[in-house]
């Protein structure tokens, strides 16, 4: 497929590009064009499954799948994990209502305008570059998940150990090339127009590893479905 490099994340009112990806949770391909004229769709463009924060965001989106479906809104999860590795993971960690696709080359993320951060020692030019001094100063507190506030890197290591997530060669390859990929969720109407977004891009990095509340997401879905 041809690539489109958007200038920053797509915003409400923008027309979403068509993307065609390998399906993980079923056979064949998944194309956004298939949903146009049929139903609104929530598309979550996440990092690879090696990211423990994204695994939790994916599960949260899947948990809303039934409620979204009741409103006539479909849901698609895209991960930067090679398809065989992704299928293996979801075989042992099945999520009801999950429609997922594999995009190890991050074509869809670029098409929707999600940048990939370059990690530097001390130079920050958000959202293109970020210094490790800034990353190490960012605290995340996940009650019930972490033992208290931790910097982002320590929290990721802690959660992977907690989950018993074994990094395989495919994960290591994706982490090496896409660790700085920013994620986003985009709600499209029946005609493929973006109506709502949540991305890690705004607020100078304060949204990193965050996610919208279920209430915010379902409120947006109600507006699109009406």
Automatic annotation (TrEMBL):
Gene3D superfamilies: Glutaredoxin (3.40.30.10)
Pfam families attached to this UniProt entry: AhpC-TSA
InterPro entries the UniProt entry points to: AhpC/TSA, Thioredoxin-like_sf, Thioredoxin_domain
Residue ranges of every copy of the Thioredoxin domain listed in the record: 10-226
GO MF: antioxidant activity; oxidoreductase activity
Name this protein carries in UniProt: Redoxin domain-containing protein
């Amino acid at each position: 497929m041809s690539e489109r490099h958007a200038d920053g994340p797509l915003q409400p009112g923008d027309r979403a590009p068509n993307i065609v990806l390998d399906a993980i949770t079923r056979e064949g391909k998944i194309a956004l064009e298939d949903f146009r004229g049929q139903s609104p769709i929530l598309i979550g463009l996440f990092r690879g499954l090696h990211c423990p924060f994204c695994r939790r965001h994916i599960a949260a989106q899947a948990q809303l799948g039934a409620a979204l479906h009741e409103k006539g809104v479909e849901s698609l999860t895209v991960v930067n994990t090679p398809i065989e590795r992704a299928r293996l993971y979801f075989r042992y960690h099945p999520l009801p209502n999950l429609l997922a696709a594999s995009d190890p080359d991050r074509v869809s993320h670029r098409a929707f305008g999600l940048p990939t951060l370059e990690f530097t020692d001390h130079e920050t030019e958000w959202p293109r570059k970020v210094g490790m001094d800034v990353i190490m100063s960012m605290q995340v507190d996940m009650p019930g998940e972490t033992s208290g506030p931790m910097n982002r890197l320590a929290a990721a290591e802690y959660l992977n150990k907690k989950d018993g997530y074994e990094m395989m060669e495919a994960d290591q390859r994706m982490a090496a090339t896409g660790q700085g990929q920013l994620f986003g969720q985009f709600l499209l109407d029946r005609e493929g127009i973006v109506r709502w977004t949540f991305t890690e891009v705004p607020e100078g990095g304060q949204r990193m590893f965050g996610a919208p509340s279920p209430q915010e997401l379902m409120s947006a879905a109600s507006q699109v479905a009406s």
